[in-house]
Specification:
Four copies of one chain form a homotetramer.
Chain A: E1 5-10, H1 27-42, H2 47-52, E2 55-56, E3 59-66, E4 76-85, E5 90-97, E6 102-110, E7 112-114, E8 119-120, H3 124-130
Antiparallel strand pairs in A: 1-4, 2-7, 3-6, 4-5, 5-6, 7-8
Chain lengths: 137, 137, 137, 137
Amino acid sequence: MPPISDRITYRPIYGDCDRMGVLYNANYLRLFEMGRTELLRKSGLSYDEFEKMGFILPVARARIEFKKPVKYDEPVDIITSVKTHDRIKITFDYEIRNSEFLLAAGETVHTTLNRDGKLIEVPEFLVRILEGERFHK
Amino acid sequence: MPPISDRITYRPIYGDCDRMGVLYNANYLRLFEMGRTELLRKSGLSYDEFEKMGFILPVARARIEFKKPVKYDEPVDIITSVKTHDRIKITFDYEIRNSEFLLAAGETVHTTLNRDGKLIEVPEFLVRILEGERFHK
Amino acid sequence: MPPISDRITYRPIYGDCDRMGVLYNANYLRLFEMGRTELLRKSGLSYDEFEKMGFILPVARARIEFKKPVKYDEPVDIITSVKTHDRIKITFDYEIRNSEFLLAAGETVHTTLNRDGKLIEVPEFLVRILEGERFHK
Amino acid sequence: MPPISDRITYRPIYGDCDRMGVLYNANYLRLFEMGRTELLRKSGLSYDEFEKMGFILPVARARIEFKKPVKYDEPVDIITSVKTHDRIKITFDYEIRNSEFLLAAGETVHTTLNRDGKLIEVPEFLVRILEGERFHK
């Protein structure tokens, strides 16, 4: 089964851009969050609901390659995929593209913590979501 | 007894500025937060400790006048004062200045909520802090 | 002719929210920017194009009333209107609403600067846009 | 000659933290920017002056390891070093520490662009700064 994937569009605002008129480097991680959140939502379980079930998915590592600037007010696609997952780590993969170019790429690696902040194995229902199954409430 | 007042310095980073090379309008409220937090800390009670005692001071209203731009990497003073306070509201007053000019002015009005999110009267120990008394743990 | 008005939807991300799990106070001004930008775009002239014509519309004053928290991941409507305008000032009015409540309200007052940063009168073509006319390129 | 290094302190504000009460993942890159900017300033040439000379140092790649949370209002040290540099790339290395632990580590790789946005070799005067020489205006 192929990794799940999703595409959303975002248009950087003034407050996202730096004095070069392009997306400030830290804000790429905001775009990655948007992509990851909408990818999860499409499975039928929002990240907000996941947290309310008593779990969190903190970022353990992040990596960004900045290829071309993301310009103020220019809509870009954020393409998010589940790259790999095992018993304790989930890796999401991101591409930011305009109509012509790959502007940036990156990944974030996440672990799962329970309500007490203890590292736990990725819950079985989340593994199924990551493999493309729809979540049933 | 005069209202308490404090002055701190901040130097805007790239990530604070917009494509005009000046502090983005929303980020003035970040500077106001910095000023207010350091004003409270000097009383002997940090805002973090105040929250751990079971209270929060949400912003009910804010107002900003933008007079001259705050430039990238130019240190500015943030001058914070307690303007007024009564049984349910505290008003902080802010000025942002460089060595020559008043660049911005503003105020934030706060109420007090308890652990359950209910509006309560400003606690007596906080009133004393706002009037210039030092907090003793 | 009634003032022009527009409604967009925004869903706060993790990075927008503070440790109370609600939209951080400064970020309301980001939502106001989103509303204002989309209002202008619907007239046929984007703010980006307006700037490329050699004008900017800096914020001279802003005011926010925080009525109820805007929660993480809860979609809210941002309703933006032109409240008043005269030869040198434009006032935009904002409401943030969920399906039940008015969560916040505010306004921003803008002036017009030319390429050299000099205060100028609101350009005639912008006055017509503010009065509801469509911009023709 | 050893790579140059610098240490500054930062205390996360409410607006930096997410609803877990800890520094939001994107904001680590803001702390890296602060560290890098102050490291350059100590050489005698601020990044602002470097840009005014007609150069920019965009981030080409960034990497962050999140080891332990950076808490609201807890001062942390940001330790920035020049890790490597060659004719076209400069790599800065960052550690974020509290009094006990290494909380995060990371690096950013930068290239040099001239006024026209063209990739150029790292200017000779900047190479000397990166090797620990003081800049003389």
